[in-house]
Fold:
Amino acid sequence: MTEEADISDEALLVRIATGDEAAMRLIYERHHGSVVAFAKTRLNDQALVFDVAHEVMLDVWRKPQNYSGRSSFRTWLYILVRNKTIDAVRRSSRIEYGEEGMDLVDQAPLPDDVLQKAQDADRMRSCVDGLSAPHKSAIHLTFFEGLTIKEAAEVEGVPDGTIKTRIFHAKKLLAACLQGQ
Structure:
């Protein structure tokens, strides 16, 4: 019998379709951390991040047949995350006005304050967090998750060139941020 680590994600999906909880546990252990990390690139609310991750894993459990095999399992999984984050943002962006209306306050720290407090890894993390969602997502998928340009483009639903352009501009923005500009 093959080791559990040698079983492909696609083979695990076939087992999940039959109700195999052990197969789902393996998928969860392999991918939950990456699902959470990718959701964090798109959402600023920790609770929403974990809600999205939970919904994605439930979709894998409940609807494994939705995987068509046209892309890699990881690409399909990140597409699920992208779609769930878009839904979460739409749901959370509904504005409810209280009796006195809404106070809009910019809660973002000033760039100088962020740079003064950050050091090495913290500084880089702060700079990455300062990127726009498309730039942050392109960097995360290609550098942290190891997806190819083509796979990242498929996840984002954009042409390959768009991902390349986003990475190019994100690198320039990161360099400027790290140099304190």
